[in-house]
Amino acid sequence: MSTNVTEAPVGPVVQATARRILPPAITGQEWVLLGVIAALWITLGVFTPAFLTPGSIQPLLVAVAPIALIGVGMTFIILTAGIDVSVGGAIMVCAVVTAKLLVEADVPLIVAIVAAIVTGTLLGLLNGVLIAYGRVHAIIITFGTANLFQFLGLRIFGSSTVNGIPTTFDVFGRGEAGRTFGIPHSFAITVVVVAIAWWYLRYTRGGRHLYAIGGNETAARLAGVRVRPRVLASYATIGALVGLASCFIIAGGTTTLDQSVGSGRELAVIAAVVIGGTSILGGRGSVVGTLFGAILVQTVLSGVTQLGWPSQLGFLFVGLFIIIAVGTDLLRQKARKKK
User: Fold this and answer.
1) Burial class (CB in 10 A: 0-12, 13-18, 19+), 222
2) End-to-end CA, the chain
3) pTM (2 decimals)?
4) Number of folded domains in the chain?
5) For a disulfide at 172, which of 25, 73, 186, 313, Cβ 3.0-4.6 Å?
6) H helices within 133-204, ranges in order?
7) Is residue 339 part of a domain?
């Protein structure tokens, strides 16, 4: 007596169970941020009509570009439950090295960009090695290297300023050469970098590993994630982006670079990332939110100036946004734990 057994179609079942459920491309919080930015722009346009003109929006986007660009790397780091408070000092080093090359060696555009990126990457690797392999908390290491980079930058300056910077970086600047069809090149490059980072975090194994490390590093390691190389790569990435951003910062200034370059930028970057919805505890966030956060921060600062209000109010409003963002995240984490 023979029995015919019909085999189940294994292939489609395996594919169905293996298919990963992805979150929305733009989350609810990011839509809220977009709505807040739109409301602010409309309000500022009503009270200061000049705000919505190209002469106001274009410089705003130029100012957003370096903050959002570095914010992409900071998002990677905070996703792993780390942080980097040394980016201000790293900007100084990258900017002064690049400016000196432009003034003293008259290097072409591509060489200057590569030099800035390589310098930033080396600084990022220093942080990454100490954090990933030294097993010391990121806030301690980067606070120490922030002072180290500051010292290094001041030594390279040699004097209070670097004068006579040529127009090599005008393609990233505020002038006519720095935009195409009214869109600043620096902002367009930043949007491309954000799009690549968004794809990496959403669709690649490496991106998923960053979320896993921030969610639970021990569990990620036990699951086979190579934690140390991922963390090292994250700090190298922010270093490279700091190098590129320093080119944008030089281009957005004058022919003179002074020692205040980079000062306070780390706070603006962290503010953009946190306001953008990345959890300061790690494991959750997105680079799209970081871009929106950078636009919101710069809109507030620019709006306060155009309204003729004291500049201190800009920092007050940004601080309130940070408190609201962090508070909302902590409440969400608490609710998730209860469930």
Assistant:
1) exposed
2) 55
3) 0.89
4) 1
5) 186
6) 138-157, 185-203
7) no
pLDDT in tens, the chain (339 residues): 444 444 444 444 334 334 455 667 777 778 889 999 999 999 999 998 888 888 899 999 999 999 999 999 999 999 999 999 999 999 999 999 999 999 988 899 999 999 999 999 999 999 999 999 988 889 999 999 999 999 999 999 987 888 998 988 999 988 888 899 989 999 999 999 999 999 999 999 999 999 999 988 889 999 889 999 999 999 999 999 999 999 999 998 888 898 889 888 899 999 999 999 898 888 888 999 999 999 999 999 988 988 888 888 888 888 888 888 888 877 777 777 776
**Residue 18, domain member (yes or no):** no
19 is a domain residue:
no
Residue 9, domain member (yes or no) = no
The CATH code of the domain that includes 68 is 1.10.3470
Residue 51 CA, distance from chain mean position: 25
Question: What does the buried/exposed string (b/e) look like for 182-205 if buried means 16 or more CB atoms within 10 Å of the residue's CB?
Answer: eebbbbebbbebbeebbebbbeee
Q: Cβ-count burial of 180 within 10 angstroms (0-12 exposed, 13-18 middle, 19+ buried)?
A: exposed
Burial of 264 (0-12, 13-18, 19+ CB in 10 A): exposed
